[in-house]
């Protein structure tokens, strides 16, 4: 087996040549487009919302089928019983109907009115029981009496219903007909992915979990941002190869990792996407090591261009970054969300519905992800060809002709920073980080200086990275 | 001479085997006991308070004799005139009586009413003199007119009296009979220590100075906490060997260091104990290097479990950490106090008496010291045996069976952190530090995971440490 | 060519011997003198203010001639057309007369009333024109209607006038007689320097730009502080060789660097001086690397002794530190100012006149620069000869004889810090930094300890430095 870096020299050179002339991804047009894209994302979320998803089953397949209409996904089915590391892919689950009827015939709870009503992976049941017998199978949220909680029991055989606490509290002490028409039988778990080839086999992994039923922020927002990032990249020459993976949380990422173990070494950077539609500030959660290129790129872009953004240290709780950041996998994968899991009251309840989301927030999330990826893909290192003193920018048309002003325009400052730090070791992202100027401004300054003959690609120029 | 680490392999292996099954020291019972221990500590302080101590002499011997009733101490006497590094052990000092009488016969100042009245190491005097002649030998605190200050003149031949400023200001301009019946003659300086053997010869040194007369916080609080830490460890199998040293400040620690120079290399960690009974927050003063294992252990325990605690950088001022941290000794010894020296007005005055102390504070100080030592002694490194993704904790009974909750219980989070960082290099203390979870929670999580077969001791497992 | 460090051993030894006994520069007398020096500096500024300076020409020569009366400067003329790195020395410019007269004969703008009225390097003009034709050549500051701005056009052939916005707004729509009697012809650019030889050829460079016409803070304040630092050092034995350079901004520092490229390796530390007379706090702008000895010295001195001081990170914008910090030059040169360029409204306007400055601020700036240089020049490393425990300072008269006090005098604390950290690796500046005590206090403590036989120069003692 050959190592990642053992490409044929011609390919490597072509890649490098390509980089040097490749323009930035995001211009004013893209920025404007992001406003419209927010609307498309929200429309897609509204379409996908009613589907009853779980970690396996028909809802999951329907979801990836709809995403495939936007960018064609490659589907893989992992059979029930497959060992994935320390886990086993469970039987496939589906539910056709589920309700509770009081003895008078009143239907108290009905799957048809919300997919959240039935605990995920509930075993089939069809029985009459007293309220006392039923009670241990009912879940509600006393602090939000009108909201239905979201509960699952994937690996512990059980059944149950989730309902509004106001309904639960009003249940008369009678007998109830309890029906769950579910099926739990050997089948498979559905994985979906799209690969956008770049000029190198080094990869960026974008992961979104797709197993949550009728929850909009978690994670239809992640799915819709991810598929539209794929749509944007599709028509574009990139340095990295981009791999978009849609899979159930935990067991899905584990199954994907287990199936692709031999090629994980190609993954240089990555993002888990989730919770990208609420109105809270964008949060970047760092990789386990915390100092990878993705960490620097993400936090630089967010802190300089997306006001109010916050950086979270890694912790082994949250979404699939837990698996990607496990000690035996240890990929450089961060996470983008707006308000993090568990930190907004609507999280994992029926209140996380499409009305909770904002098209503006979705569009901005999409743009933020794009700019983070751009900062990795378009990063480069140069050497200043006139390193003794500042070169005379004025005679090259790169500097205002009149002197004496109190301030310096940001674009001129970017030229000076690029010249000052282009010693072949610092990349444009490093320079953007130190100068606290937006990455695009710095990269454009470098392009101008290269055109003016003042910069040349560093001898081993390539993407920065760890 | 053999190096510290050249133990016979079997001994080393036995030590390691012992570690793996050794439970944490502090459980709910210990925590409850600490409340009662505070009362015992204060009672002991009240007993020791009236004794007139100095850096040599009978008061010092009476003090260590009383401590010996709790845990038997080994006594060493260092003769006057012994060279200890740059110093010489001084003559032994004792004082039988000391007073000032006005010519009318009124006794203005009397040693019998407070040991602080006479300047430590005062030469004998018996003379009549005017107030003007007497005045240079009188010390008071104008800012606290009712308190008697504490003054000494160990190495400069002198005599003097300390008294309340209110008394000083009221002295009539008459003649005074001034008497100090002291004795300064060749004798010895008393050192006392207790050694609790552990499974390794690597040592932890606990030092408390015992030379201050009738001052409660400084340092009867340190003596009482130290002797009760020794009492707790006595019945317990420990990894480290614990050495408790009671000695006069400065000359005592120097004498002890000089007598034990050949075996100082065994000391891996240590604490100076003082000022542990006032109501202020606990302060940890770091070692000279500031990044030893004791620094990390102490600050982790205090910052996660003892609210309001503060960390002080090392400075060459304070107690015997000055000697332990001198460049030619350079031991990894930190210091635990509550309010530091010089930062509370009662410091070194008659107001530092047993009524100034709190049994609760003393008990809490004892518990804090114990937990710091526990974090060093019970620290260990493990390897995650299922490092690819998270192992399935649910089927091992280590994870709640139902999913979807907003938060994660601290105990589950501790399990995830231990799994995530157990790469053989990070110790439980490192993991506790990064996760900001209490050490005991992390160590217990590791024990649960080891029992479940998910962790194994790291190949070179042993105490972390610098 | 020989390397910097290849001095003859005897010279090196002599240098070292000299250091060990050399007293600090700044004592109480110097501190008092700094108050008077402020007045002298302001008087010099008032004298130099009316001279019409530019980057070349007679005003520049007159300025350095006046400075030469204080300390004799060596003058070098760099001919027009000389290539300096990426630049070319421009033709020499002078202006004899310049005015605008309205058709009625009213003189609207006149060079005689302010040197700022004519744009620097204006081409000659003598023409009648309408207000519409004249307007593009007029510059004013609408936000400060009474102030005249400062504008130049060194490298782009142009002409123009600067005037108060209130005057501009009142101009009647008539025809104007516009006259600039300037001359732009081959000549030379003037460099001036003074070298104070030290006991080593290692140099400290002090640079001040001298090209600004009738602006007081920028940079007559820098010139006057620099020349008086030179005057102070002139009578003094120093470790370093001090080189004071007075040159026009940008093209002047580039010309000096290009002429002296072969000996730049001798420059170990340096400061650019400017804007030292306003009432704002002192700002130190760090070198490009940010962790040179000059960075530590400057920030230590300012933060411990000059209240309100601030530290700025390097950026490639400002004064000639831009050239010294370019990647191909990369000298360890920081910058001292009070309020930085562009951060006070008077900057680059007629309001930056001598009345804007304060004699106290100038004197304090001079003292601050001196103390920063002192901390570099008088820095040294020692070895504690009694490293086991603290030596007994009392019997050497270095410690108060009575014990028990609540606090410790700063001078005793300095003794303890020097003893504690004098391991041969830490310099006095390092120790001052860690202890946060003033450098002079620490250096004096070291001298006392050396005299007492407790310290010896470290085997390779010499100036600290990077």
Account of the 3D structure:
Chain A has 466 residues and is α/β, with parallel strands linked by helices. In chain A, 32% of the residues lie in helices and 21% in strands. Chain A has 13 helices and 19 strands. In chain A, the strands form five sheets. Chain A has an eight-stranded mixed sheet with strand order 1-10-12-11-13-16-14-15, sandwiched between helices. Chain A has a four-stranded antiparallel sheet with strand order 5-4-9-6. In chain A, helix 2 packs across helix 6, helix 6 crosses helix 10 and helix 11 crosses helix 12. Chain A is elongated and about 90 Å long. Chains in contact: A-B, A-C, B-C. At the A-B interface, helix 7 of A face helix 11 of B.
pLDDT under 50 segments of chain A (min length 5)? 1-19
How widely separated are the two ends of chain A? 23 Å
Largest sheet of chain A: 8 strands, mixed
**Oligomeric description of these chains:** homotrimer
- The average pLDDT of chain A is 93
The largest contact between protein chains, plus residue counts on each side, is:
A-B, 36 and 27 residues
Count of DSSP-assigned helices of chain A: 13
Q: What does the overall shape of chain A look like?
A: elongated
Strand content of chain A: 15-25%
* Class based on secondary structure composition and strand pairing of chain A: alpha/beta
**Share of helix of chain A, binned:** 25-40%
* Cα radius of gyration of chain A in angstroms: 26 Å
Instruction: Compute the number of strand runs of chain A.
Output: 19
Give the strand order of the largest sheet of chain A, numbering strands 1, 2, ... along the chain: 1-10-12-11-13-16-14-15
């Amino acid at each position: 087996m050959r190592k990642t870096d053992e490409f044929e020299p011609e390919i490597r050179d072509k890649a490098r040549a390509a980089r040097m002339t490749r323009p930035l991804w995001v211009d004013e047009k893209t920025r404007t487009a992001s406003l419209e894209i927010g609307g498309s994302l929200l429309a897609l979320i509204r379409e996908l919302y009613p589907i009853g998803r779980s970690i396996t089953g028909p809802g999951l397949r329907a979801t990836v089928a709809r995403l495939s209409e936007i960018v064609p996904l490659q589907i893989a089915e992992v059979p029930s019983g497959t060992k994935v590391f320390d886990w086993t892919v469970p039987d496939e689950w589906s539910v056709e109907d589920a309700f509770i009827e009081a003895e008078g015939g009143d239907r108290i709870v009905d799957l048809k009115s919300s997919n959240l009503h039935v605990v995920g992976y509930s075993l089939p049941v069809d029985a009459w029981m007293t309220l006392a017998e039923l009670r241990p199978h009912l879940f509600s949220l006393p602090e939000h009496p009108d909201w239905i909680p979201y509960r699952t029991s994937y690996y512990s055989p059980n059944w149950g219903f989730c309902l509004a606490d106001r309904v639960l509290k009003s249940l008369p002490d009678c007998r109830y007909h309890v029906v769950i028409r579910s099926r739990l039988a050997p089948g498979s778990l559905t994985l979906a992915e799209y690969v956008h080839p770049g000029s190198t086999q080094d990869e960026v992994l974008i992961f979104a979990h797709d197993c949550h039923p009728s929850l909009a922020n978690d994670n239809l927002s992640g799915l819709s941002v991810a598929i539209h990032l794929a749509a944007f990249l599709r028509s574009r020459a990139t340095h990295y190869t981009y791999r978009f993976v849609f899979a159930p949380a935990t067991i899905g990422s584990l199954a994907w990792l287990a199936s692709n173990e031999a090629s994980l070494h190609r993954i240089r950077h990555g993002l888990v996407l989730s919770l990208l539609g609420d109105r809270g500030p964008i949060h970047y959660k760092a990789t386990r090591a915390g100092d990878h290129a993705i960490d620097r790129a993400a936090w630089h872009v967010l802190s300089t261009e997306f006001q109010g953004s916050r950086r979270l240290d890694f912790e082994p709780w949250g979404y699939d970054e837990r698996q990607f950041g496990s000690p035996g996998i240890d990929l450089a994968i961060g996470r983008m969300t707006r308000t993090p899991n568990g930190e907004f009251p609507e999280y994992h309840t029926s209140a996380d519905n499409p009305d909770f989301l904002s098209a503006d927030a979705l569009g901005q999330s999409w743009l933020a992800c794009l700019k983070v990826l751009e900062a990795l893909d378009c990063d480069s290192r140069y050497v200043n060809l006139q390193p003794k003193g500042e070169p005379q920018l004025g005679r090259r048309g790169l500097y205002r002709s009149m002197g004496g002003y109190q301030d310096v325009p940001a674009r001129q400052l970017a030229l000076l920073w690029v010249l000052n730090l282009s010693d072949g070791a610092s990349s444009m992202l490093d320079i953007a980080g130190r100068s606290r100027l937006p990455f695009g401004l710095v990269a454009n300054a470098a392009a101008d200086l290269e055109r003016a003959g003042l910069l040349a690609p560093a001898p081993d120029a390539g993407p920065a990275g760890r």
